[in-house]
Structures are given as structure tokens and as C-alpha cells.
């Protein structure tokens, strides 16, 4: 099908096209580069054995994650106090681990399936590659707690295709992007067949995807009826991460938030970021929460803030304490929320008995949280139902879609200070925009040092604050009712479609095998 690229030339090609992947995403937003990366990876896998494809895909993954999640180095070195050499080693280990986990098996499986399904034509191989890419993107959303970073669909949030997201979600958007790029590739290579009905059909379908996406921009998936407009203020205090959990600095932190909020108590909703109150509730923080609640009550508004929670139980006569990363609504509001999706090493330490204490990075402050229950009610601000998410949770599309059902507004609080001036906060912000678009809801994002923003139900940024600046973002949001199609069915229809197409491939391969056996046995 194509000339075989063996050895280091092929590995270098795979590494190179993997590197350009991250430049399709925020803050670069050169989305066509993702298509070039995909196609380069696809052609680098052709005519290889399974073992060769495994190593080729591993090199692609190293380029993919080596640039795409390079912000991990900032967390380990700058805030985990690891020496440069150790930080580079641990970051490299993380990149290689992810590459072995998600890309090496993709390459191996692609070659295995092309052999098993006897996929000899360009079209069948392109389809198989696209299906496997989607399967592994789906695995990234849940396997080993999930790491759904740099999924293809996010790069296209500012294109007409993104308007499909309230129907099929970001994973479905990835499917449409794949169909577009792989279809365009097939059309280009098969251009001599431009008069054939199949060629014309593929061209028409590819064009229709984009045209329909543009037309969907005017579709309102959620209802404004019986809802209201709220004035909201998100406080970005820019507290230095080195002082965040310093007990001696806690009162200064609280004084900073109170000072920044002073002129905004007339807003309907004031939001402070993740762990803005660096004291455990109720042990140390209750008196401060009550004080701020009293301030909010004077103006009949609601304060929502992040802070750590502690629950204590007595088991076999011994006190047992459980800590949660949480949110509480105070003043003219009620409810609390405990984070469900925890960040490995940041909020809990895998293999804790082995790793805890080896280096400072494995003993970060507040890294012993437990996961909250899955059936927690929404926060209430006056009569508004708010689906709240903490930091990393906003990157899980199906999770957010399910949690946001019957809500009127989305809030996400975060502390991206761990990633400094890297590309990490921009990628995180891009994914938050996708959640607003998928759910047809306004989203308020309050962070410690950026990017704090108000995002509308179309995923567009209404207003945002610059990074690394202490300030308050004030604007208006419209509450919403109803659920988008994606909120109802999430990614299940897409997964069923993938399974069906793979089954068709299997059935077709068996038919070919049966026919070959009949021809062989015929005298």
C-alpha cells in the first residue's frame, strides 16, 4: 500500500508528527496540525509487523505527550521541589507510561485487525484506524481513573463542527473530525475515481458534516423560559502556591479574599476558587464560613467557595477521619459538594505505602483526599440549581453531562497554579469551554491565578481575567432549563456504532474466508 518505513527513519517520522499534535490545541489553536499528525501516524504504520507497529506507535506517543503534557515538569520541579534532573526523569517516565498505555497497543491492534479482517484496501484501513483511535480516546476517559487530555475534538471547538457537540459530545466530535480528515485523504488518493458514485458520496457526506455544523449554530438546545439572569463575581486572588498551605499565611489569604470581594457583595453570586479557604471545615474553617455567610446574607446573595472538608467516624472505638476536596454554598444558598475525580499524586498518592515520603513531590500538602459520593445533590443559590465541579473533574465529558442534568448553571473552581506559565492551564480552559457547549449551559470558572472566565451556552468566552493577576471578574449569566441530547445519552450511541462497524468488519472477513475455502475445495 505504501513504502515501508523501517527503523529509525520511521520512528523519527512518528515522533515528529506526534510532537505537532499539541500545537493544534490551546494556546496555539492551529487545529489543522492535528489532521497532519493523524495522517502522518497512519501512514507510518503501514506495511509493518505487529511488533514494529507497537514501537512505532510508542514513539508517536512520546512526541504526543512529550509536548502535550510538558506542564507536568512545572508541577514536579517548581512546586514539588524536585531537582531538575529528577523532574525531567519523572516527567519522561510519565510520558513513556502514557505512551505504552494508550499508543503502543493502538499500533499493535491496528496491524492485528488489518490482518485478521483482511483489510487490504485504503478505505478499509482508514476506517479501522479511525475506529481504533476513537476506542483509545474512550479508554483515556476512564481506564486507571482516566486521563482524557488532548482528545481530538477539543482542538475544533472554534470550528463549525463543534456545533454537533450538544448532540454527540467531544468524543462524537472526534469521530466527525476523523471522518473529515480520513475521508479527505481517501478522496485525494482516489481522485482518479472522481466520477464514481462512491467518491461523490464520500465528498458529499464530508461536506454535509461541516455545513450542518454551521447550521446548528443557531439551534438552542436548552430553554430560557422561567429562568433568570444573574450577576456573578469570580474572585481571582493570585495567592502564591508556595504560601497556599502555609498556616501562618492563612489569615492573610482570607483577608485578601475578603478585600477583593468587598465591592462585589451586591452580585447575586460570588465565587471563590478551589481551596480558597485553606482551613479544614468544620474544624478550623466553620467560624470563617459563618462570618462570610453573614456578610452575604446582608445582601441576600450566595457565596460559593472551595475548601477542604473532614468527616469523622468512630470505628471499633477508634476515630477515623476522611478528608475531601470540597465546595460549600453559604449565605442565601445551601449545599456542599465533595470532589469525585481526584488527581493522582496531587490529591491522592497511588501505591501510597511505597511512594509516600520518598521525595517531597510524593508528599504534597493535602494529597490524602478521598473521593466523594456519586449521588450528591446540586448546590442551591436562591432557587438556582448549580452543578459544581472542582478542577480536574471538568475534563470528563460524560461525567459532567450526567452530573449537570436538571441543573440551571455550571461552576468549576480550580487552582492551576501548579502549572505556572505553561500550556496546561490553557488546555484545561479549552476543555471547560467544551463542557458549556455540550450541556447548553453558562459556565463560571473561578481560579486562583487564571484563567477565570464566564462562558456562555455556546462555549464562547464572554469575559475573562488575565493570568497571574489579583482581580475580580464580574458579569451576567443566564440560567437554563432542560437537557441537551448528549446529556441524556452521553457516549453510549457512539460506542454502539463503533462496536457495530467492527462486527461488520469481522463478519465480512469470515465471509471472505468461507468463500476462499469453498474455492479451494472445489475441484
Account of the protein in words:
By secondary structure, the chain is α/β, with parallel strands linked by helices. 45% of the residues lie in helices and 15% in strands. The protein has 16 helices and 13 strands. It has helices at residues 7-19, 32-44, 50-68, 72-79, 84-102, 104-116, 122-140, 165-189, 197-215, 250-261, 286-298, 352-355, 397-403, 424-439, 485-489, 492-521, and strands at residues 229-236, 269-271, 302-315, 318-331, 333-334, 336-338, 379-381, 384-390, 409-414, 443-447, 453-455, 461-464, 471-478. A seven-stranded mixed β-sheet has the order 5-7-8-9-10-11-12, with helices on one face. Helix 4 (72-79) runs antiparallel to helix 5 and helix 8 (165-189) crosses helix 14. The radius of gyration is 25 Å and the shape is globular. The two termini are 33 Å apart. The mean pLDDT is 91.
What's the shape? globular
State which percent range the strand residues make up. Answer: 15-25%
Rg is 25 Å
User: Which residue ranges are poorly predicted, with pLDDT under 50 across at least 5 consecutive positions?
Assistant: none
First-to-last CA distance? 33 Å
Provide a count of the helices. 16
Mean pLDDT: 91
Strand order in space, largest sheet: 5-7-8-9-10-11-12
Helix content: 40-55%
The helix-and-strand class reads alpha/beta
Number of DSSP-assigned strands: 13
Largest sheet composition: 7 strands, mixed
Provide the succession of SSEs.
HHHHHHHHHEHEHEEEEHEEHEHEEEEHH
Amino acid at each position: 500500500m505504501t513504502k515501508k518505513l523501517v527503523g529509525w527513519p520511521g520512528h523519527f517520522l512518528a515522533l515528529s508528527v506526534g510532537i505537532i499534535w499539541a500545537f493544534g490545541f490551546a494556546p496555539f489553536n492551529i487545529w489543522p496540525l492535528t489532521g497532519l499528525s493523524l495522517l502522518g501516524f497512519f501512514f507510518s504504520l503501514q506495511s509493518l509487523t505487529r511488533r514494529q507497529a507497537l514501537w512505532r506507535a510508542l514513539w508517536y506517543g512520546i512526541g504526543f505527550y512529550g509536548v502535550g503534557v510538558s506542564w507536568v515538569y512545572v508541577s514536579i520541579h517548581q512546586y514539588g521541589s524536585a531537582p531538575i534532573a529528577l523532574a525531567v526523569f519523572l516527567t519522561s517516565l510519565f510520558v513513556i507510561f502514557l505512551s505504552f498505555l494508550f499508543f503502543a497497543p493502538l499500533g499493535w491492534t491496528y496491524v492485528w485487525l488489518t490482518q485478521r479482517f483482511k483489510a487490504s484496501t485504503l478505505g478499509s484501513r482508514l476506517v479501522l484506524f479511525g475506529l481504533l483511535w476513537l476506542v483509545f480516546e474512550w479508554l483515556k476517559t476512564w481506564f486507571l481513573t482516566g486521563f482524557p487530555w488532548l482528545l481530538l475534538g477539543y482542538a475544533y471547538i472554534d470550528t463549525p463542527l463543534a456545533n454537533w457537540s450538544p448532540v454527540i459530545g467531544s468524543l462524537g466530535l472526534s469521530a466527525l473530525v476523523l471522518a473529515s480528515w480520513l475521508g479527505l485523504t481517501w478522496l485525494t488518493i482516489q481522485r482518479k475515481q472522481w466520477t464514481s458514485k462512491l467518491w461523490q458520496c464520500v465528498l458529499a457526506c464530508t461536506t454535509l458534516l461541516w455545513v450542518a455544523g454551521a447550521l446548528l449554530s443557531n439551534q438552542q438546545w436548552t430553554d430560557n423560559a422561567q429562568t433568570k439572569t444573574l450577576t456573578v463575581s469570580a474572585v481571582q486572588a493570585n495567592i502564591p502556591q508556595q504560601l497556599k498551605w502555609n498556616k501562618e499565611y492563612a489569615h492573610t489569604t482570607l483577608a485578601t479574599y475578603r478585600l477583593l470581594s468587598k465591592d462585589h457583595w451586591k452580585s447575586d453570586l460570588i465565587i471563590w476558587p478551589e481551596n480558597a479557604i485553606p482551613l479544614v471545615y468544620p474544624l478550623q474553617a466553620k467560624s470563617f464560613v459563618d462570618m462570610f455567610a453573614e456578610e452575604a446574607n446582608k445582601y441576600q446573595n450566595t457565596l460559593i467557595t472551595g475548601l477542604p472538608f473532614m468527616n469523622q467516624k468512630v470505628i471499633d472505638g477508634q476515630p477515623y477521619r476522611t478528608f475531601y476536596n470540597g465546595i460549600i454554598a453559604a449565605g442565601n444558598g445551601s449545599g456542599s459538594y465533595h470532589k469525585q475525580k481526584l488527581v493522582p499524586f496531587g490529591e491522592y498518592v497511588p501505591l501510597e505505602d511505597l511512594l509516600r515520603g520518598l521525595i517531597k513531590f510524593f508528599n504534597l500538602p493535602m494529597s490524602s483526599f478521598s473521593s466523594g459520593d456519586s449521588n450528591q445533590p446540586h448546590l442551591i443559590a436562591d432557587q438556582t440549581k448549580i452543578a459544581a465541579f472542582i478542577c480536574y473533574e471538568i475534563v470528563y465529558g460524560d461525567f459532567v453531562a450526567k452530573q449537570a442534568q436538571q441543573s440551571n448553571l455550571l461552576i468549576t473552581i480550580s487552582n492551576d497554579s501548579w502549572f505556572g506559565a505553561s500550556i496546561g492551564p490553557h488546555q484545561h480552559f479549552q476543555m471547560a469551554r467544551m463542557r458549556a457547549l455540550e450541556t447548553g449551559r453558562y459556565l463560571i470558572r473561578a481560579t486562583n491565578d487564571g484563567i477565570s472566565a464566564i462562558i456562555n451556552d455556546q462555549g464562547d468566552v464572554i469575559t475573562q481575567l488575565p493570568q497571574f493577576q489579583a482581580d475580580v471578574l464580574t458579569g451576567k449569566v443566564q440560567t437554563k432549563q432542560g437537557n441537551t441530547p448528549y446529556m441524556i445519552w452521553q457516549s453510549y450511541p457512539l460506542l454502539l456504532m463503533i462496536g457495530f462497524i467492527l462486527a461488520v468488519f469481522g463478519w465480512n472477513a469470515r465471509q471472505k474466508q468461507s468463500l476462499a475455502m469453498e474455492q479451494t475445495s472445489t475441484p
